[in-house]
Design brief:
The protein is built from five helices and no strands. By secondary structure, it is an all-alpha fold. It has two domains: about 1-70; about 80-125.
Length: about 130
């Protein structure tokens, strides 16, 4: 007889599942045939299920981050491409039109100097 006190009737299982979806003690207590012992076990199982589901999310997050870190070790070095040269400059409508030709000449000269210095540094590093 004690065994039957620790179980919820089969007719109340659908209500118990709906109450656990809400996750509140009052919803679980409202299930027909619910005893304090069963309610305590259901709440413990609900907390345990939530903890385990969150741990799987953390495991997946660790794997994704680890893959990102490992991929970062195999990236090419692009530092030699980062220069102060801007290929296009954006102006507001009508602003800067007179200075565009002058800026292009200065930018082209500066870009050529940077490209020459980069090329020379690259050749020196290849020789070493």
């Amino acid at each position: 007889m004690d065994y039957h006190r620790r179980r919820v009737a089969k007719s109340s299982l659908s209500e118990l599942v709906a109450a656990t979806a809400l996750g509140t003690e009052s919803a679980i207590a409202g299930v027909p045939g619910m005893t304090p012992t069963i309610q305590s076990q259901v709440m413990d199982a609900l907390v345990d299920a939530r903890v385990k589901s969150c741990s799987w999310v953390c495991y997946a997050m660790i794997a994704v981050n680890l893959a990102g870190v490992l991929a970062a070790f195999y990236l090419r070095d692009y530092d030699h491409l980062f220069t102060s040269h801007v290929p296009r400059q954006i102006y507001a409508r009508g602003e800067g039109i007179m200075h565009i030709k002058e800026a292009r000449e200065v930018d082209n000269e500066a870009a050529q100097e940077v490209d020459d210095a980069t090329r020379e540094a690259h050749l020196v590093s290849k020789k070493a």
